[in-house]
Amino acid sequence: MVSVAATPIVPGIAEGPSLVLDQPLSWWGGIDPLDGTIIDAHHPQRGQPTAGRVLILPGGRGSSGGSAVLAESMRLRTAPAALVLGEVDPILVVGVMVGAELYPDRNCPLVVAGEGYDLLVSSRTTRIRSDGRIEQY
Amino acid sequence: MNPILTDADQAMLHGEGSGAQALAMRVLVGMARATGARRMIDISGAHIDGTLYLGRASLNFATRLRDEGGRVAVPSTLNVSSLDLLHPDLFLGDDPTRDAALTMMRAYLDMGASPTWTCAPYQLADRPGFGDRVAWGESNAIVFANSVLGARTPRFGDFADMAAAVTGRAPEFGLYLDQHRRARVRIDVSGIAEEAWLTDEFFAVLGFLIGSEAGSEVPAITGIESATEDQLKVLGAGAATSGAVGMIHVVGITPEAPTLASATGGIEPRLVRVTADTITRAYRALSSTDGENLHTVNLGTPHYSARQIARLQDLLAGRRVHPEVSLYVNTGRDVLASSSGNVKRLEEAGVVFVVDTCTYVTPILPAGRGVAMTDSAKWAYYAPGNLGVDVVFGSTADCVESAVGGRVIREKRPW
To answer: Is ipTM > 0.90 here?
Structure first.
């Protein structure tokens, strides 16, 4: 088991299969909110599904429309189960906060893994605890 | 770490103001925690970027704030929407999308924001002054505000800009702070011939190149002796397209960079030399095809200024747009009104003006084959993904010659 301490920016608990992205991602133009697939033509993991995954990524990428697309994914229940970031991105933080405000039965915890980020892998089961700790089996 | 909140911030957070202010303050506190901001500050204005309809969530946010008593606490301008309200027939999308977009636009007006509907709020009569702290969304506008006006705004995204507008407060982070405004990378263009940097398209291509070199760092450009506001505008738009750039110093030209040392704060920056070769590669990367069969020409991303519209009139020189080509000029309704003489003559020559929105974010272009041409690095970058079209990037003069000739015509570039 891998266990990594992380800072919960938007706290919550989540569990699901994880996917590690090799590059940052912009939700606007990067994710299709209808099914959660990566659609950014410049992204190495284009075509991968993110819905229900614990998505592990180095960070967000610029676009300011990202918050709205992430909130829309939460509305459509196609968002990741949780976001684990190497570096914090306010655009994604605002997206999951507003998504949870508008649709209170949905949640997408967001944690920042910092130094432990490199230990994380794509795995069958990744759990986010309420204190932010990430456990992978 | 939680930020220090004033009594007034606490009151808003705990619902003593409107429900909208409580929601907004929760979002701002979350942002402050995420960015490590130590406190909240007053802002003197906002530019709201969340006005493009991006699905029900974007609509639900706007109507929820409005229905819970949201009002902007500071003068607030609105970015482009999905519709051209002055030319409604241009929108070729479906009725449910049109209705949702219209409802969302109304919600922002109900909250007291100004119906500017432009991505170039710095072309409005009222714009922030040196040192003013504002909360702006829209990446190109953010670069212009910080770099050219010397106002201060970090890169706000959707929802966050409106949260700042209804509270008049913002977490103190990023480009609000002196240390984040210092250049960490020097882009030297002294190896490029002067005749190149006198053209507008050089600035668009240079911006696009800088964005990929600088990422989220602040660059300082050296080796340019003059630049117009329109050139600085397309420079920033290009850089904010390929990178997360929020500010660019142009040494000797922009207000916080009288010298390289003042831009960097005295710390030696990383050096990137721009050559004719790197500019040529960036110029080529902006076109997705070398096809010559022309279908549409798209000018005005960011929204054209009055000066750019006058220049278009000069370049067209009494000729008409080819009957098989559509030439669109995206601009703000304020600029349209102030340029009415030129606009009328250009419309008679076959030019189609689009206001309140832009041809790469909403369905306006007619179905058909052939390439789309543009003088905008931003349009060139996003349109293939958004619209599924092939793009050729060229100078404004190339775009005009092509629109008249009915096929893609590009002059040799001066670099």
So the answer is: yes
